[in-house]
């Protein structure tokens, strides 16, 4: 029987086709505007109108869907029937049901299971005609299915096969939700029929799409009623609750309640108020909430959550201030569950000693009289690697005694091997030693490392030419250590020598992020909201900024990591330099011009490639 009706999907008149006693409406393709889905690649953020995590379950629109198939793999075909029910707040808003011609024979066991025969499917529309209505019916709703990956897999494959963009809706799996809500004492398994019997639903599954979809609606309502006891009230809570979160995460998830959705720092604190973990985010509430989801699998963080009793939020003007405050808090408190940046003072330097025959020395701090140094290095090993590269390039002595210009001392084996000019035996004069060994190192540290680079490249070429690739690889590693340290230090010096620098960056909301940096330290931060002139805000930030006194070395007033975070922010294309007390400059022939060489050498070292001749 054919009769006209008003479509629940489009609001237009369309035709309902009855299949005898089955009375299942088949959707005839309505007027459909694909533009509502165009430009929405799978996996990206959904446009306005789609439900968000904060939406209450009672206000969420669900499309509960079930498919019947030929039993094969999801390859874009094989769908024989689609049933979907749209509900919100317990009220049924619409129904979509249709048989689908799969374009292939129906296996006999599928006919026995579902009662769907080949003859029933011959007049049915193919999936490519049904998809537009299905996608429109899904728009703005949460897709619900029992064992959802199966149904979603078939729909996504069909969309891909026939040129439709899958809208990537939020998905709630009633089978997964039942595993979290119901115990084995209540139900022996999580099959749809078992759950329908447990909840005494008015609709029972029958392996027909619409019947199973209606039964799933009843099961969904029963599960939502049980979620209240678990403090699951929003869509985001329900989706995360269905995932495999630990009992600790579920018990402690209230720690994320009431946190601000602004940039800043969050601190997990123990019962005695000790900081356990410090982190930063552009959205504190969202980031802290992620610690209580299935995506958080780090063992140390699980241990930290068990000990945490509260979360403290420190609101910041923008992400740069948040990153800097995080570094300072980690350095001040050394939280046990932070792995990085815990001890910013634990750095070493490689300096050239002040004596007639200078040598390289690894020290923990610099004195006012030190004028030739390299660093900071995060470990003694990295400093010694850079020192080895300098020893390969120039004839610096490697012994540690202080040598006299009046009396001699016995030479070591390096002198016999021709790797040291033997200043201990006065085989080289003080001026000549300065010219050959000390001066190239001084120049490389403060200005131009060309002499060191040329010498190390020549050594690599000679070793590679002799097919001594392993030795060439060792020298390459030393070259990387020297270049990495000189590039880093010269970048830091360029910033930290500036008494005051004011910069601004356009914020995502149209306002301005403002920072005042003094000697490489963030002294003040602020934000000018949209429509507020940024200049008065900058003047206020400058007036209230921290006083920072100059000091000695490339990082006199802050940790190297803080100054490097500031540098990364300043070097972004959208950051504007507003004012500076002096020029921001680097040496014209400094180490930065070897960046390409450094990147190639690092890439070769990571790939464990044989060293090629330069």
UniProtKB/TrEMBL annotation:
Keywords: Exonuclease, Hydrolase, Nuclease. Gene3D superfamilies: GIY-YIG endonuclease (3.40.1440.10), Ribonuclease H-like superfamily/Ribonuclease H (3.30.420.10). Transmembrane segments: none annotated. GO terms for molecular function: exonuclease activity. CDD domains: DEDDh, GIY-YIG_UvrC_Cho. The keyword Nuclease applies. This is DEDD exonuclease domain-containing protein. PROSITE patterns: GIY_YIG. Residues 261-339 form the GIY-YIG domain.
């Amino acid at each position: 029987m054919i009769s006209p009706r008003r479509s629940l999907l489009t609001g237009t008149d369309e035709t309902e086709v009855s299949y005898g006693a089955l009375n299942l409406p088949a959707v005839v393709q309505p007027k459909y505007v694909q533009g509502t889905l165009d430009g929405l690649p799978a996996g990206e953020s959904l446009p306005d109108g789609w439900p968000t995590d904060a939406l209450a379950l009672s206000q969420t629109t669900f499309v509960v869907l079930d498919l019947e198939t030929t039993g094969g793999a999801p390859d874009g075909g094989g769908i024989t029937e689609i049933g979907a029910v749209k509900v919100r707040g317990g009220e049924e808003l619409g129904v979509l049901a249709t048989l689908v011609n799969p374009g292939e024979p129906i296996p006999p066991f599928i006919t026995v299971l579902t009662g769907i025969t080949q003859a029933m499917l011959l007049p049915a529309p193919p999936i490519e005609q049904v998809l537009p209505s299905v996608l429109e019916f899904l728009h703005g709703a949460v897709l619900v299915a029992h064992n959802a990956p199966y149904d979603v897999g078939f729909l996504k494959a069909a969309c891909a096969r026939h040129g439709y963009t899958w809208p990537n809706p939020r998905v709630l799996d009633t089978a997964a939700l039942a595993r979290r809500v119901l115990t084995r004492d209540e139900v022996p398994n999580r099959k749809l029929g078992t759950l329908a019997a447990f909840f005494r639903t008015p609709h029972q599954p029958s392996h027909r799409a619409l019947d199973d979809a209606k039964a799933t609606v009843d099961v969904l309502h029963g599960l939502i009623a049980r979620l209240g006891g678990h403090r699951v009230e929003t869509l985001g809570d329900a989706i995360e609750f269905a995932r495999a979160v630990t009992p600790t995460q579920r018990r402690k998830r209230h720690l994320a309640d009431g946190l601000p959705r602004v940039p800043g720092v969050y601190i997990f604190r123990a019962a005695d108020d000790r900081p356990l973990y410090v982190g930063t985010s552009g959205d504190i509430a969202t980031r802290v909430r992620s610690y209580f989801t299935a995506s958080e699998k780090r063992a140390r963080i699980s241990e930290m959550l068990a000990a945490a009793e509260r979360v403290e939020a420190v609101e910041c003007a923008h992400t740069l201030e948040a990153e800097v405050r995080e570094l300072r808090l980690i350095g001040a408190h050394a939280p046990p569950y932070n792995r990085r940046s815990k001890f910013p003072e634990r750095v070493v330097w490689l300096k050239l000693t002040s004596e007639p025959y200078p040598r390289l020395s690894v020290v923990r701090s610099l004195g006012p009289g030190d004028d030739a140094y390299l660093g900071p290095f995060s470990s003694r090993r990295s400093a010694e690697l850079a020192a080895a590269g300098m020893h390969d390039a120039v004839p610096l002595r490697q012994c540690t005694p202080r040598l006299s210009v009046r009396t001699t001392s016995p030479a070591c084996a390096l002198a016999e091997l021709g790797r040291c000019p033997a200043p201990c035996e006065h085989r080289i004069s003080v001026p000549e030693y300065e010219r050959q060994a000390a001066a190239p190192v001084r120049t490389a540290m403060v200005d131009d490392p060309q002499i060191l680079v040329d010498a190390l490249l020549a050594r690599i070429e000679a070793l590679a030419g002799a097919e001594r690739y392993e030795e060439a690889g060792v020298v390459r590693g030393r070259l990387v250590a020297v270049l990495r340290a000189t590039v880093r230090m010269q970048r830091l010096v360029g910033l930290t020598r500036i008494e005051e620098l004011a910069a601004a960056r356009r914020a995502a909301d149209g306002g301005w992020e403002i920072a005042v940096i003094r000697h490489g330290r963030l002294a003040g931060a602020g934000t000018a909201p949209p429509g507020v002139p940024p200049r008065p805000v900058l003047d206020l930030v400058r007036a209230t900024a921290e006083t920072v006194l100059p000091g000695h070395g490339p990082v006199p007033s802050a940790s190297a990591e803080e100054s490097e975070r500031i540098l990364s922010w300043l070097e972004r294309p959208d950051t504007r330099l507003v004012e500076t007390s002096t020029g921001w400059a680097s040496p014209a022939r400094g180490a930065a011009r070897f960046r390409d060489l450094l990147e190639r050498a690092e890439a070769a070292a990571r790939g464990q490639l044989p060293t090629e001749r330069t």
